[in-house]
Amino acid sequence: MPHSTWREYGGAADGAQYSSLRQIDRNNVSKLQHAWSFSTGDERGYSFNPLVIGKTMYVLAHNNSVVALDAATGKELWSRPLRAKSLLITNRGLNYWESKDRRDRRLILSVDNALRELNAENGQPIEDFGTNGSVDLRDGLGRDPKSLTLVQSYNPGRIFGDLLILGSATNEEYASGPGDIRAYNVLTGKLAWSFHTIPHPGEAGYETWPKDAWKTVGGANAWSGMALDEKRGIVFVPTASPKYNFYGADRKGSNLYGDSLLALNARTGKLIWYYQMVHHDIWDYDNATTPMLLTVRHNGRKVDVVAQASKVGFVWVFERETGKPLWPIEERPVPKSDMPGEETSPTQPFPTKPAPFARQAFTVKNLSPYLEPEEREAITKQMLAARNGGLFTPPSTVDTVEMPGNNGGANFGGAAIDPDHGYFYVVSKDLPSMLKLTLAAEPSKSGPPEVRGRGLFEANCSLCHGSDRKGRPPAIPSLVDVFDRTGDEDIAKVIHYGKGSMPAFAKLGDAEVRSLLAYLRHPERAPESIAAPTTTNAAAIDPVTAHYRSGFGFMFAQSGLPVIAPPWTTFTAYDLNTGDIRWQVPLGEVPELAAQGHKDTGSHFPKTNPVVTAGGLIFAGSRDRKVRALDSSTGKMLWEAELDAAIEGMPAIYEVNGREYVVFCAAARSTTHTHAIPGHPASQDPIHGAYVAFALPETSGKR
Ligand code: HEC
Question: Looking at the structure, do residues 647 and 515 belong to the same domain, yes or no?
Fold first, then answer.
């Protein structure tokens, strides 16, 4: 697999986040210089992994246009606006395909839940692809396409021959779409195969769900990244939890192929093997990183393996062809749910090796030393009253501690490898969650706008802002008094585009946003949600139709920092030949704490996508606006530079005219959870985004 250029998301088809270039190395990295910058020319957030084909770089900029740049100078060659209606755009990377004679060269991406193609020479849309140049991804999922508001993911997919293999995103809701893995012909847009992650009748695994679940239950989707073993023709697909995230009475069973690693025949979509990491997930414990393909020495022989990191904090290592685990995996008993209608799995799988990279328990003994005294007291009280039975404690109608939290452990782009030496690197975010299930009002399609708005709010917003709209200031603002601070137009913008760590709700149409605004203005006009069940009325509830919901419950303190003791972000290096940890270091810092001498906390809001090089380096940018190079054998920082905006996406490493470049997409908002920390850049600041490339000075002669 070529690793000397950057032709695909993650570098190559295997998504290894690895470059075999070695011009920049441990000895000279300190001389790295700014080579060029290309301003995005707007105030949008981007977390894009640039592609480099020959001497041309492709990026997303100019209000969501695909822009071609000269990769050596950053000079713009052309720009093609995508004119998305919904703002749903493949925004982490792009697919590139070329015909054998290289006369036909295409860029492929998803916009508004539809596939589109551009001519890679000039950005012209390819009109004879699909129907009038597009393929609706909502078709063929066995649901009314109009009922599916979110299908495409931000991940671009994988090219294999003339096929584009695609995962999907789904809503976080009940009745979300199913997570079918699909392959489309790049030339015609015709569907070549589908793999049903929620099996249809007659397919293996159908028995792990209630009858006809595929028609009503969603998720089990692949949104993070796929790895292709081109030689074997196997695509490795990591799947996420089935929906709804935190309550599964309407999906009794182990729910194959949710939270699994799938090995599929890339030509046909046929299942070769699978492994399920979480049975009947009610914790939102997705396999959220790209699987990594490496070769290791194990018991004296060379073995091609696939390694998968997850939100739970484990690394799972399997023989690539058979799915046989490299080290034993044990099914261990876990706590049982007492929610009406819920049947949790009596056991969950635990790998005996390698050791986890994330902390998997959180008690009052692990509270952060940076909490204010009153807050420490309040959180201690809440924690001591909460259920806290360790990993896989089921959420319930009382507070339940979840550690790693549902946004902790490893996340997209967070894993990278040195494929030849069997080294595996992973970024962990140590953030606990407090879950609590309540029965909330259902989104109503009729009635006054305030009532519809309330339903939409419960379904989309209460997760973070709370059913009482009080949020958890300052990390999550209260919306009770939101009109004192801002107006309709700005709120609509926040909903459409997202803000800081609030995701964009591009799927909500104008009418829905109007209903939300109406509700936020006059919540008193919308009736109360259904009361939580008591022991007397619990029996009257039909668990299959009762839609319990919980917020994500991220446990941030008033300061915006996690309530758990640091480090909040770690970077772990494994040697998968032995299964041992080589080193583990905190990654990044909180500038205000670093100024007081506390430099080993790790960044408190990471979205770090590392890239490893044959030069013995790991490049990564983070939300503290810094880009860094670490020594891959020790984790020691060898170089850093500060940019004008935060970095969320993955760097690309490439070579033009014999010169090696590292390019970062610095176009994300700075950390958002530090309003209360004086001197921190406010998240309201406009983003001055840019693609910024570094290289060794040209004057340093023959390198
Ligand atoms: C995943 C958590 C999350 C979800 C879900 C979420 N928000 Fe937010 N929201 C936030 C955070 C965090 C902020 C603060 C962003 C910042 O300032 O950096 C915020 C900010 C806002 C603001 C700006 C408030 C102000 O004081 O300026 C509004 C308005 C808002 N959210 C409305 C909504 C609505 C409406 C929904 C549902 C459609 C929603 N949010 C869903 C986390 C969330």
Answer: no
